[in-house]
Amino acid sequence: MAEELILLDEWLSMYGMRARIALAEKEIKYEYREEDLTNKSQLLLQMNPIHKKIPVLIHNGKPICESAIIVEYIDELWNHKAPLLPSHPYHIAQARFWADFVNKKVGDASGRIWAGKRDGFEAAKSELVESLKELEKVLGDKPYFGGDTFGYVDIALIPFYTWFYTFEVLGNFKVEAECPKLIEWVKRCKQRESVSKSLAGEKEVYEFVVHYRNTHHLD
Amino acid sequence: MAEELILLDEWLSMYGMRARIALAEKEIKYEYREEDLTNKSQLLLQMNPIHKKIPVLIHNGKPICESAIIVEYIDELWNHKAPLLPSHPYHIAQARFWADFVNKKVGDASGRIWAGKRDGFEAAKSELVESLKELEKVLGDKPYFGGDTFGYVDIALIPFYTWFYTFEVLGNFKVEAECPKLIEWVKRCKQRESVSKSLAGEKEVYEFVVHYRNTHHLD
C-alpha cells in the first residue's frame, strides 16, 4: 500500500522538531507542510480540532497529535530500526517520566521566558536552569539519555537547545556555565544527521522572538 | 522471585484511583500505603523526589511515578490478561491523546473548582462541562471508551466521577443534565469490581473538600 504521510509543522517549534527527528531516525519519507500559526490552515483545524496545534502527523488521512504521542507512534509503527524507547517496561516508564518532566518543567519555563513579561524572567530562568541541572544529573556520564543509544528523552529535550541562545540573550546568562555536561551532550546530538537537519537555527529563533516581543509589546 | 509491590497513594486522589483500578483489572496483589499529604513520608520523598506526589508504584524497590505512566507500566508488564491499551499503534495514540486530554482539561478545571476561589468557578465549570461533552462525543454509542472493553481512557476518566457530587454542590449544576450518556457510562464502569472497590466515596470527597476550603479560607 502506498503510504501517505504528512507532517503539519512550524519550523521553529520545539515540539515539531521532535517529530522531524524521530522520522529522520527511522529514515521515513514524508511531506513536510509549514503552517502559518497566525493563519492556520483548514487542514490543521480539521485534523486537530481539539488543540488546533502543530505538530500533527497525518498518516493515510488519520491524524496523530501531541509531540510525545507522535514520537511513540513512530517508534511503535516503524519498529524495524532505531528503537527510540528502551525495551523493558521499567526503563520505558523512566524515559516517559523524564520526557514528561521536559514538557512540564523545561517547556513551561521556556514559554515564560520567550513569551512572558520581563518581570517574570528571573523566576522562569531559575526554574529553567534548575530543571536543566536536574536533567544533567540524570544524563550523568552516559553519552545519551538513552544510554549508549540516542532515544526518546534525547528527542524530547534536544529541540530546546535551538532556543537557548534566545533565552541567554533575554535572560543574560549562559546555559553552558550552568550545565557544561549538558552542552557536551548537545554537541554529541548535533553530530547526528537526524538532529542537525531537523533543528531550526538559533539566530532564526532569536529573530522570531524579537519580532514577536516587539509586536506584542512585551519589552 | 518474590515480587514486592507497594502503592503510595491517598484514597481520595483521582490519580491514585487510576493505579488501583489498573492493578485490580490485572488482579495483581500489592501493599496499599495511605500517605498523609500534609506530612509526607520519607519513603514518598525518597521515591518521588522530583514531584513529591502520589501515586508512586514501588516495584521491587524501584519507583514508577505519574499515574498515566504507572497505568502503562502495569499494562506492559502484566500483559497476560485484561489489556488496557489497544493493540494497533494508531488506536494506542488515540487512547493516549484522550487520556492526556482528561489530564489537561478535566484535571485542570476540576482543580480550579475544588481548590480555587469562588470567582473562578463559572469559568472552570464551563470548561469542565465542555470537556465532558467532548468526551461524551468520543464515547458515542460504545459501552466503553475502549470500545467493547474497559481500557486506558476509561481508567483515566472514571475516578473524576467521585468528585462530581462535590463539583455539583459547589457549582450548582448537574453533570447528568449536561452529559446523560456519560453518566450511563459511569454506571456501567461502577458495575466492575475493579472500579467499585477502587473508588473513593462521593460524600467522603465532599467532606474533605468542605474542610479544605474552610481551613484555606476559600469560601
Counted up, domains of chain A total 2
Tell me what the CATH architecture of the largest domain in chain A is.
Answer: Up-down Bundle
Which structural class should the secondary elements of chain A be placed in? alpha+beta
Relative helix content of chain A: 55-70%
| Strand proportion of chain A | 5-15%
CATH class of the largest domain in chain A: Mainly Alpha
Tally the helices of chain A. 10
Q: Please mark out the parts of chain A with pLDDT under 50 across 5 or more consecutive residues, or reply none.
A: none
Cα(first) to Cα(last) distance of chain A is 53 Å
Strand tally of chain A, please? 4
CATH topology of the largest domain in chain A: Glutathione S-transferase Yfyf (Class Pi), Chain A, domain 2
Largest interface: pair, residues per side: A-B, 21 and 21 residues
Return the average pLDDT of chain A rounded to an integer.
96
Please give the order of strands in the largest beta sheet of chain A. 2-1-3-4
Q: Indicate the overall shape of chain A.
A: globular
Keywords (chains A, B): Cytoplasm, Transferase
Family (chains A, B): Belongs to the GST superfamily.
InterPro entries (chains A, B): Glutathione-S-Trfase_C-like, Glutathione-S-Trfase_C_sf, Glutathione_S-Trfase, Glutathione_S-Trfase_N, GST_C_Tau, Omega/Tau-like, Thioredoxin-like_sf
Catalytic activity (chains A, B): RX + glutathione = an S-substituted glutathione + a halide anion + H(+)
